[in-house]
Amino acid sequence: MLPPNYAESAEPGSGAPTLRAALPCQSCSSENRRKFGGEIAIHFRGLKNLDKSHVYVCAELAVCLDCGAAQFVIQEAELRLLCEGERHVPPPIGGRL
Asked: For the whole prediction, is pTM greater than 0.70?
């Protein structure tokens, strides 16, 4: 089941869920949100992981133009890469990112 901030259907031909920018921001409740395309490089934290490759994600971003909060979906293939790489990454001190 998709969270309520996802559209019921995917963009034509993509097969991927899309974000709804029309829903209020989860951080500040503003309705001043817009959709943008984005490219994000996710890296594993810590000096020990400097040799690991970044995971590059192309995603649709829903950005609140009042508080700056952004939300995006990581597709299954990239999510799998993050999960596989995370198995070899020690948890952060204190258990938080």
From this structure: no
